[in-house]
Write a structure and sequence with these properties.
It is a single chain. The protein has 199 residues and is α+β, with helices and mostly antiparallel strands. The strands form two sheets. Strands 3-1-2-6 form a four-stranded mixed β-sheet, with no helix packed on it. The chain has a three-stranded antiparallel β-sheet with strand order 4-7-5, with no helix packed on it. Helix 3 runs antiparallel to helix 4. The termini are far apart.
Length: 199
């Protein structure tokens, strides 16, 4: 019985080590994506520049690219939309931020499935997100990731800033979170801008 227990523990330890290594590799890929030109938010910001508004969904961005640049759609989907943590190979999560009367999208968040491999938060049309409540409504591994930025809708915003691009997102490996996690990883907060010398 003792040897069976030792054998099982050894297997679990080996699996945990492999999973930790895979997680670290994914974090490196994520950092390279964020550092490179293929940032997750680029197609969404391009959409807003052309249409004059934020999209209702990531699928709307996809359709616009498919219509205007059909030869690029495979590249766009692979490098801008796919979530490297999602076990089912799905897209990152796009979550609109609405103004106080829910009439207009004024910003957005991008979420990854994170270590547990599934996107746990769901866009709910009957419970829209706003500038002052999204942290309370969403389950996030790193809710304070962009707190060192300045909200562009606040009185503290002086225009001498750029959209925050975090190259050191914190998401350490945890066996418990991998198996039982029910949160998502915050990748981008469009309304939080940072001083140019910081990023």
């Amino acid at each position: 019985m003792k040897w069976i227990c030792i054998f099982i523990i050894s297997i679990l330890f080996a699996c945990s080590s492999d999973n930790k290594k895979l997680h670290e590799e994914k974090m490196n890929v994520l950092q390279n994506l964020i550092l490179g030109l293929d940032k997750y938010n680029t197609p969404i910001d391009d959409f807003k520049e052309v249409k004059g508004r934020f999209p209702d969904s990531l699928y709307e961005v996809y359709l616009a690219y498919k219509h205007d640049n059909p030869e690029e759609i495979g590249y766009i989907e692979l490098y801008h939309f796919m979530d490297i943590f999602n076990k089912k190979g799905r897209w990152i999560g796009y979550f609109p931020i609405y103004n106080s009367d829910d009439s207009q999208i004024i910003s957005y968040l991008l979420l990854s499935a994170g270590i547990d491999g599934k996107l746990d938060n769901v866009n709910n049309p009957s419970n829209k997100l706003h500038l002052d409540d999204w942290k309370q409504k969403l389950k996030l591994y790193n809710p304070d990731e962009f707190d060192d930025g300045v909200n562009i809708f606040s009185n503290d915003f002086d225009g001498d800033s750029v959209p925050c691009t975090k190259i050191d997102i914190e998401h350490p490996y945890s066996t418990r979170e991998e198996k039982l996690g029910n949160k998502d990883l915050l990748l981008h907060v469009n309304h939080m801008w940072c001083k140019t010398e910081q990023y």
